[in-house]
Design brief:
By secondary structure, the protein is mostly helical. Helix content is 52%, strand content 0%. The chain has a domain of 69 residues. It is elongated, with a radius of gyration of 18 Å. One of its GO terms (biological process) is DNA-templated transcription.
């Protein structure tokens, strides 16, 4: 997933309920699918952030020495400005990018 090219909104917006429930015919099922996808996106973002911040990690036993690394701060600020995982999941849902299947069928 390329987080830089996403068109998901950063702020809260109102969605049309009929567009959200259209693929499944059930609003609750659609919300459940989007919630699971949001959890997946959150895990991916968290793993990616931890990997990037580990590159800057310095392991000291001394608590008195705290180094501020500009690159580390920039990476953190970038991830803070990203849309939230649930906004990304809703955007993917509306664009038809989420694959789901009904196990009852």
């Amino acid at each position: 997933m390329d987080l830089k090219k996403t068109t998901a909104p950063v702020n809260t917006i109102t969605y049309n309920k009929s567009k959200i429930e259209e693929p499944t015919g059930n609003i609750y099922e659609a919300i459940t699918i989007m919630a699971r996808r949001a959890n997946q996106i959150n895990s991916e973002i968290k793993k990616e952030l931890i990997d990037k911040l580990d590159e800057f990690a310095t392991y000291n036993d001394s608590l008195e020495e705290i180094f501020e690394n500009k690159e580390q701060i920039e990476v953190s600020k970038f991830y803070e400005k990203l849309p939230k995982p649930h906004a990304l999941a809703v955007q993917e849902w509306l664009e038809g990018k989420i694959y789901y299947r009904d196990s009852n069928k």
